Amino acid sequence: MALKFEILKTSGKSRLGKLHTKHGTVDTPAFMPVGTCATVKAMMPESVAATGAQILLGNTYHLMLRPGADLVEKMGGLHKFMNWNKPILTDSGGFQVMSLSGLRKLTEEGVAFSSHVDGKKFFLSPEESIKIQHKLDSNITMCMDECVKLPASHEVVKKSTEMSMRWAKRSKDAFTDRDGYGIFGIQQGGDYKDLRQYSADKLKEIGFDGYAIGGLAVGEGQEKMFEVLDYAPEMLPSDKPRYLMGVGRPDDIVGAVLRGVDMFDCVMPTRSGRTSQAFTARGTINIRNARHREDPRPLEAECDCPLCKNYSRAYIHHLQKCNEVLAVMLLTWHNIRYYQRLMQGIRQALAEDRLSEFAAEFYAKQALGDIEEI
User: Which domain-ending residue is among 219, 245, 266?
Assistant: First the structure.
């Protein structure tokens, strides 16, 4: 296998590690900001790197529609195209295609769908997804799968999982091995333990460089998600990275790390930056609220991002009220930096054998709520 994953230390189910790729090393547990269309919204790539992010997620579905994988390949690949010289993981495009419901037709061969942009017809098969991700020059390619929204019956999830495992084999067969690149399989099975075990067994039989846990954060709630994570990660190989797709909130991430997950992605920090939401150690705040109008304090005194170092809550509140783009830029930077600081704190706690204490302090602070009004 072409990707190297080192486990430096363990604490309970949690792991401190390093994932080595052609474009650099990723310290794990890691959070990947989402760069859907070859950009993290409202951020320059240099700014994303400055937050401490070591890897980004790109979106196969959106990039195949615009500007097209052939153009990205012609421009030297996604790293060069978007000026990001660190690792990139791309999803398979399957999740977005499945969400089109009325605009797609699913068969064993793949998915026929109409573009949400211009109505143009496309067909995405496991082989085509892998081909597109190769053209994008993704360091971590994801196999194509079907993701069922929960709750769903055992029969529905079983049928979907079985097809996803057939697609996983086709994806792996279509992947081109090369130094510094790899392909991850995706465990499905919904919230059914027997189907999760079946999926894990099939994926291990095929053999992947890493393993994702899919089919969660799709409407089941945190309690049910943690219930699945209490057993699902341990079904996967212990010497490979484990990636929980599409998760999530800071408290989701801490809980998932405690259950053995190594990698995460979510649009939440960037999307929240566009909707006046800021993440802090004491929970989420809405900067548009009137209580911030005359507040000279930073969002978070402990944060070292440009917003917290240079601007007051009053100023960012003013920018949001005026719908200024700078507000989105600063809040997004802060949110991504908050997530990276959280991951750095988790890794440091793991290295120092105090993860349990870190988690307890994290949840206690989150329960306090925002700082008192002045």
Answer: 266
Residue 295: active-site member? no
Report the pLDDT value the prediction gives residue 373, as an integer from 0 to 100: 83
Instruction: Tell me the one-letter amino acid at 354.
Output: R
Q: How confident is the model at residue 267 (pLDDT cuts 50, 70, 90)?
A: very high
C-alpha closest to that of 90 among 55, 57, 67: 57
- Separation between Cα atoms, residue 263 and residue 216, nearest integer Å: 14
Query: Do 209 and 337 share a domain, yes or no?
Result: no
In sequence order, which residues have a C-beta less than 8 Å from that of residue 22 and are 6 or more positions away?
A: 87, 139, 179, 180, 181
Q: What is the CATH number of the domain that holds 14?
A: 3.20.20.105
pLDDT score of 1 more than 70: no
Each residue of 145-154: pLDDT tens digit? 998 888 999 9
Q: In this predicted model, what pLDDT tens digit does every residue of 29-69 receive, in sequence order? A: 999 999 999 999 999 999 999 999 999 999 999 999 999 99
27 is catalytic: no
b/e 15-41 (16+ beta carbons within 10 angstroms → b)? bbbebebebeebbbbbbbbbbbebbbb
Determine the pLDDT at residue 147: 86
Domain residue limits at 334: 276-368
Assess whether pLDDT exceeds 80 at residue 97: no
For residue 101, name the pLDDT band (cuts at 50, 70, 90). Answer: low
Considering the candidates 137, 191, 252, 265, report the single residue annotated as catalytic: 265
Q: State the catalytic residue, choosing from 91, 191, 209, 262.
A: 91
Q: Decide: pTM greater than 0.70.
A: yes
